[in-house]
Amino acid sequence: MKIKVDILVPYLSGQGGMETVAKKVAEFYNENREIEVRLVIPQGTIRKEWIGDITNNILYNDSKLKIKSFRNLGGLLYLINYLIFHTRDTDVVIGMSSRLVRIISIYRRVLKKNFFLVSWIHFSIDHEDAVRIKDIKKADYHLAISSGIKRQLTREGIPSNKIKLIYNPVEKTDESISRSKSNTLELLYMGRVMLDGQKNLRELFLALSKLEIPWHLKLVGDGKQMQNAQELAKELSIKNKIDFCGWLQDPWKQITNVDYLILTSKYEGLPMVLIEAIERGLPCIAANCPTGPEDIINERNGYLYEVGNIKSLVNKLIIAHKNKYKYRKNTVKDTATKFLEENYFARLTEFFKEIKKNKGIKYL
Known about the structure:
alpha/beta; Rossmann fold; disordered C terminus
């Protein structure tokens, strides 16, 4: 008998990493004989295109409500309807937000439903206001996308045997990024343009302004602070060394002559851009923020520095410049192996089979 799994997706933009991973999981198990996965999207999404050609095994509330309070109410009614009429044979329900976990736990108890409830949080628990640990604790099991998030969960009293570290999947590719052949340190940033807050580009710009070696930065991405970022670069007299490329469709196919990808985030969940880079043989320089980079970056594929330590970042950039030919593409690429889809889905399948073996539910 198949293990039936429902993944409940919160209201999202339709362009982020959570949507990408949820879709990959649904597509992988589409033809699986042992496990059936269904996406449940009670509030819809801002953009529906990410769903693509998934027509089977999906419950989607195609709501056009723009006012948040009305959208939340409509989503709640859709969710209750789903729990009443569509979970008769469901074995596992996964909530991708702490709010969803809380609501599902309440109505599971009220409706006396017999499925396991799993949390699947994609953000650092300590840094996202929308993530509430007391709600996460209402789940029976937990999927962790980084060892940092697993540490946060165990610190909050969740037993380690209730947490499965699965990371996130990256697609295997034969693509590789060509390195520069000049004496200039060619850097790449790819992501939202945020001077402060999570992405912390101010720290990168300040470090680059102190760098006394030849360097150049390709900045791929967009955001509300793009103009502010350009103004800061001008103030620091480094604007002529930065290409503000804006957002690119399929950027990996357009990027060439780069030595390192750089990420100066204050916090992450598991930064996929680092994994995508090393899968293409491109080494990285990253802030060792609480969750994510430590699982990806090591001495075989790049450098970590401490968040907020601009002097440390400058030193790492100088060392990286000296060692720019040290990292062989195949060696860097090998470090992405544990994130490849085949290994990711082996871990996830093992998790589903493990919890299916358990008998009965203790409602939390």
